[in-house]
């Protein structure tokens, strides 16, 4: 456990020690900023023109204004490239410089190595997307409204939150651990119980959040992004364990990633009644986002695809590391 | 402490190590000799658990490296050839990370880190990036890493390769001091080093052990010749 945590921490830190992490973040944020700019433009359009599903434009699924189409193609073309940048160094670099030998002779199991590396790159990927959470309040036109509604439940919730803050402060100033634990547990208990009862029993809420767009598509989009990202990252990790050169690993993972992106562009070729069409739909990730996630639909088929490909790739990565010992 | 029985390793069709058996007793410093490509590094990599043998058995302190790899690896401090390190980390950070990887708690890590940085003369480069260190310092970082978890067995693959004479002397002195506390297997090409630091030698040639025993006994068996002559004769390069 301790070994795995150490490895996760090192791998995560390594992104910020070299230029690779910054390159990935930069290219990703430029692209996302462009898409955000487009969406805000469409949402504030006067007259009958506008957009029905803002998240669809945001994740490169729209084709209505030409610009959105171009940005969408760019987004999905570069998505596997960005995940490839994140993953290509993980094992390939260690093999190239020979540090894999020191890593694999440490008392740590192969699956722990793979898991730690995957968690680290997944963490970095989530960090990339966390930055885009800044766009969400603007996109959704969120309004928060306070009202002095003091029922027993809302008071319990507020006191609970205050306790949690005190516990955090006590933790920072290194007061006795018993106090921290007591405040923390009390705070969480009160906050959860109070919040639940306040939400279910009371008629008026002391804080009301209103959004200008339907909020659930935003949630489902992020769910899809998290899981689809895991799939592309696991693919990249697998490729990275095959080769010694980072560049080759990057190109291969881009190629493999595009296998899940390009079918979306070729879908119009097939008759919708044919057998091939659902197959092609099944592996075209941009289509999943265009049709389901960005419109608030959770379809289990793509989720199963993402999770199973992720697990399968991680398993194969462990095997490929083990096979290296048998050479 | 190190028990090797009928070790064989094939790279495809090519047998790099053929039926190697030897035994290293606790507290001995053993020099592992042989010409380039004789199978030294391969054997050491198998001992350290980086490679898996095609057949044969290796036990470290009673733990089989194949069946009980974690317990065996915990008892080994291994320094690979050329000493690969992460160039983008600082010396201190690197050793801290390695300590965690070897399962040391924070307190142990702090304590061992202080000990090994002092022991390997790394105190003045603690905060330096490993990528900017000279070869000698890098070698010392590798040695510090091997010592970090205080393992009973040290396996060092060419610890003095590429060092200047002063550094070789320093490293040799360190090895001699460490030899009093650890069982050690070290490979080298410098025969005077073996004479200066090791209790016994194992000579390997074309993947097979051709001579093994205490330094004095080996010399005795070959009519008290210099070690260099013995080495040349054993490895069949007499005409040169």
Give your account of this protein's structure.
The complex is a heterodimer of chains A (327) and B (240). With 327 residues, chain A is mainly α. Helix content of chain A is 74%, strand content 2%. In chain A, strands 1-2 form a two-stranded antiparallel sheet. In chain A, helix 8 packs antiparallel against helix 9. The relative contact order of chain A is 0.13. With 240 residues, chain B is α/β, with parallel strands linked by helices. Chain B folds into two domains: 1-75 and 158-240, P-loop containing nucleotide triphosphate hydrolases (Rossmann fold, 3-Layer(aba) Sandwich), CATH 3.40.50; 84-150, no CATH class. Chain B contains nine helices and ten strands. Chain B has helices at 40-48, 69-74, 91-101, 106-119, 135-147, 165-178, 191-197, 215-221, 227-234, and strands at 2-11, 14-24, 29-33, 55-60, 63-64, 76-79, 153-157, 183-187, 200-205, 208-214. In chain B, the strands form two sheets. In chain B, strands 6-7-8-3-9-10 form a six-stranded mixed β-sheet, with helices on both faces. A four-stranded antiparallel β-sheet of chain B has the order 2-1-4-5. In chain B, helix 3 crosses helix 4 (106-119). The longest helix of chain B has 14 residues, at 106-119. The A-B interface holds A 2-3, 5-7, 9-10, 14, 17-18, 97-99, 101-109, 325-327 and B 11, 45, 48-52, 69-71, 73-74, 76, 78, 80, 82, 84-89, 97-105, 145.
The main sheet of chain A orders its strands as: 1-2
Give the helix tally of chain B: 9
Low-confidence stretches of chain A: none
- Counting structural domains of chain B, the number is 2
- Report the biggest beta sheet of chain A as strand number plus sense, adding barrel if it closes: 2 strands, antiparallel
Report the CATH architecture of the largest domain in chain B.
Answer: 3-Layer(aba) Sandwich
Instruction: Give the DSSP E fraction of chain A (strand runs of 2 or more residues).
Output: under 5%
The low-confidence runs of chain B, each spanning 5 or more residues with pLDDT under 50, are: none
Helix content of chain A: over 70%
| Quaternary structure type | heterodimer
Strand order of the largest sheet of chain B: 6-7-8-3-9-10
Q: Count of DSSP E strands of chain A?
A: 2
Proportion of residues in helical segments of chain B: 25-40%
CATH class of the largest domain in chain B: Alpha Beta
Radius of gyration of chain A, CA atoms, in whole angstroms: 23 Å
Distance linking N and C termini of chain B: 37 Å
Chain pair sharing the greatest interface: A-B, 25 and 32 residues
CATH H-tier superfamily of the largest domain in chain B: P-loop containing nucleotide triphosphate hydrolases
Helix-strand sequence of chain B: EEEHEEHEHHHEHEHEEHH
CATH topology of the largest domain in chain B: Rossmann fold
